[in-house]
Amino acid sequence: MLGSIDVAGGPLIVLADVEEMELRLPFAELIGLHVGILRGNTHPHNERVAKRRASQNGHPAGESGQALVETALSLSLLVFTILGGADMARAFAAQMGVQNSARAGAEAAVTRAATTDPQIISYVTDELGRIAGVDAAAATITVTRTTGAGGESLVNVRVQYTYRTLAPWPFVPNSLSLDKTATFRNYP
Questions:
Q1: What average pLDDT score do residues 154-166 get?
Q2: Helix 117-128, helix 66-110: angle, nearest 10
Q3: Which of these, 15, 160, 165, 185, has the minimum number of CB atoms within 10 Å of its CB?
Q4: Up-side HSE of residue 6: CA atoms within 13 Å toward CB?
Q5: What is the pLDDT of residues 31-50, one digit of tens each?
Q6: Is residue 12 helix, strand or coil?
């Protein structure tokens, strides 16, 4: 039962669902005022609860394994959510790694840090190898040189990589094809 008493300009809310309760008002210590509340537990639902048999461990009979089942279901859902999030994070990191490695290779070509295709591929492989869980040797790296619309020389570095999830997930593809191309202008 919920009741309220207006005390010193603000309501004091009392939850009285016990047989006997002593209510102390904020100013009770000053004036020695104590109010005792005596309530009977007469709600029909409470009588049914009180009559329910209890098992040996004090919990109601038939409900002793409920907490174990709820915990098992909650923990399994939590574990799958965490693993799924970790797989998504790994896929995002792999995609960013593929994009950055293509850019690093094209940048090395136009700054003349790498002048041949094997040197450019080496730059790409080094950058891709910095990403945890990505096998740089499994990537397909293609270097092409083209001419732009205005006659400028362009270097294109394409990196293709197939990402695989940690575990086979239901209703979700287990592999993801990542394909990124970086095109930089090659200044003379």
A1: 95
A2: 160
A3: 15
A4: 1
A5: 544 444 445 555 566 555 55
A6: strand
pLDDT band at 30 (very low <50, low <70, confident <90, very high): very low
Q: DSSP string of 138-159?
A: G-EEEEEEEE-TTS-EEEEEEE
3-state secondary structure of 183: strand
| Amino acid sitting at position 9 | G
DSSP codes, 108-129: HHHTTS--SHHHHHHHHHHHHT
Q: Residue ranges of the domains in the chain?
A: 2-51, 86-186
Sheet containing strand 140-147, strands side by side: 140-147, 153-164, 175-186
Candidates 20, 12, 19, 14; CA nearest to 1 is 14
Residue 96's Cα: distance from chain center in Å?
A: 19
DSSP reduced 3-state for 132: coil
**Looking at the DSSP assignment, which residues form a beta bridge with residue 13?**
4
Residue 61's pLDDT is 60
Residues in contact with 188: Cβ distance below 8 Å, sequence separation at least 6, in sequence order: 153
Query: Distance between CA atoms of 108 and 102, rounded to whole angstroms?
Result: 10
Hey, what are 108's tokens?
């090395």
Residue 36's pLDDT is what? 45
